[in-house]
Amino acid sequence: MRKKILFIIVFFYPFITQGQTPADSVSKHVQFILKNGQQVNGKILMLKKEKYLIETSSGDTVTVEQAQIKTISVPGLLGRGYYENQFSYKYFMFNSAVPLAAKKWYFSNQYLFFSSINYGINSHFSAGCAFFSFNPPALFSPKVRYTLNPNSKIKVGINAQYLSIQVSEISAGKKYYQYGLAQAVATYGSSQNNFTLGVGKFISNRGVYGGYVVLLGVAKKIAPRLSFISENNFVLGSLYFSNNFSLLSNRFGFLSAGFRFDHTKHAFDLGLISPGVSEIYFNMNRVFIFPFVGYHLKLNP
Q: Taking all residues of the chain, what is their mean pLDDT, rounded to a whole number?
């Protein structure tokens, strides 16, 4: 997408600037904001091997690598910059194998009540905690993640998550349930366009449950400020949540799709989510559809 934007700018630039004064032309030069905070303004002379050759406003020539660029815009012309999906480590609720930026803090919130804070320790390790602030029920869930090969096109990650759930039952009052979730995920593609397959297992003091948690996630940059997100989770097999309730042979899943509105250090999620239960081969016999809303913030950009 970024290459397409730059191709349009480079190809049509001479026609766009016809009839303008020199001062007007300078203001129409491409503006790069780099990930280290540096700003570069000037004409694009060449794009080769993911490197841009730029003639700056002062007449110097510099080379900028695509990986260094945070945003691209044409001040006064397009009025809209190119903003990356800076929260590509996460779809709507679950994680991909894309690593978090090192030494950066991230905050996410869904439906006002469900929040999480994550920290990128380095290019391989990250840690965080999710919590549900509406009581009852309440959720407290610390987690850690390790990405084996963060610079590869096929990234492999291992997630370990602990869940403590408080539920108020009429007969027993407040009760706590503790679970662990061990999950392996593989993400193919870049941070902006990728596909993720994940498989996990629930663990408790009863042992390892027979069912599997399957994740299918997709992220696609479709516009300078817009990403398409789809997250689909399935619980397959036997999962027991209490003595009185179990999913023994049923299939349970969440299907979702929507958009992420990207900006410099935050983003909004808006989509539709559909939880459903099926008896045989995903033939959903109980399906509900409701809006999904979320917000992400980079605390120290």
A: 78
Tell me which fold the domain 2-82 belongs to. Answer: SH3 type barrels. (2.30.30)
Which stretch, 63-72, 234-243, 278-287, 290-299, has highest mean pLDDT?
A: 290-299
The pair of three-digit structure tokens given for residue 267, joined into one six-digit string = 């983003």
Cβ atoms of 120 and 139 closer than 8 Å: no
Domain map (residue ranges) of the chain: 2-82, 105-298
What average pLDDT score do residues 5-12 get? Answer: 45
pLDDT of residue 285: 56
Fold that domain 105-298 belongs to in CATH: Porin (2.40.160)
